[in-house]
Design a protein that fits this description.
The chain has helices spanning 67-77, 146-166, 201-217, and strands spanning 2-3, 13-19, 22-29, 35-39, 46-49, 53-57, 85-89, 97-101, 104-110, 134-139, 178-184. By secondary structure, the protein is of the alpha+beta class. It has a 7-stranded mixed β-sheet. Helix 2 runs parallel beside helix 3 (201-217).
Length: 224
């Protein structure tokens, strides 16, 4: 496994903008055509062809109730066209965690001010929530079936939780964590990997890359 910036077309481009009197960053991936993504993002979520991914930092205390429209506007301002994925976080995106394993590249940004356990008791919170957020973007170099893409999200999430526990954080994540996994589109009539669980070939590599990337992005307990 190697840590540091991803290689090839999967390396993110840093962006900056002025918004509401603050200087805010973003990470932009431009893999281009020929990729499919599965994502829980508010913009471009679901499964389908995606040619770019934008992970945009927003201010603490973010109050907009239209994050999808906000991200679409940021994408237009960055000159992006076609289908893409937009994520946001209040975390500092200029210091992401990144790792690679066997051809899989993963980048994570991590804000964990608002965190807890997924199965904690209590009522749901309606509407958008505070964007503390751990965002994960990963590239798998092998075509994956729809089922394998969904499996990849589960694998990446398991690896994220493992990284949180290994770093000493007593939580499974934040209420707004998001993930995006991209893989090449299968050739017409061609094969695609049917599995991406943590013991499959590509799922194991994805898990290790995400675990290392999230671990590198996380603040240590007691460290601001």
């Amino acid at each position: 496994m190697t840590t540091g910036a991803p290689t090839r077309s999967t390396a993110p481009e840093p962006l900056e903008r002025d918004e509401d009197g603050q200087r805010l960053g973003a990470l932009l991936w431009r893999p281009g055509p020929g990729w499919r993504a599965v994502s829980s993002a508010v913009l471009g979520g679901g499964i389908g062809p995606r040619s770019w991914v934008l992970n945009a930092q927003v201010a603490h205390g973010y109050t907009r109730t239209d994050p999808d429209a906000h991200l679409a506007d940021l994408a237009r301002r960055a000159g992006l066209h076609g289908p893409g994925v937009g994520l946001m976080t209040a975390a500092e995106v200029t210091r992401p965690g990144a790792a690679s394993d066997g051809g899989v590249d993963a980048v994570a940004t991590a804000g964990i001010e608002v965190r807890g356990w997924a199965a904690a008791p209590g009522p749901a919170v309606p509407g958008p929530q505070a964007p503390g957020t751990i965002n994960i973007v990963a590239f798998v170099p092998a075509p994956l079936t729809d089922a394998a893409l969904v499996n990849a999200v589960a694998t990446a999430t398991e690896a994220k939780v493992q990284a949180l526990l290994d770093a000493g954080h007593d939580c499974s994540g934040t209420p707004t964590d998001a993930v995006c996994v991209l893989a090449p589109e299968p050739p017409p009539g061609g094969p695609a990997e049917p599995f991406a669980g943590p013991r499959s070939l590509w799922g194991a590599r994805l898990a290790r890359a995400v675990h290392a990337a999230v671990g590198a992005a996380l603040p240590r307990p007691g460290v601001s």
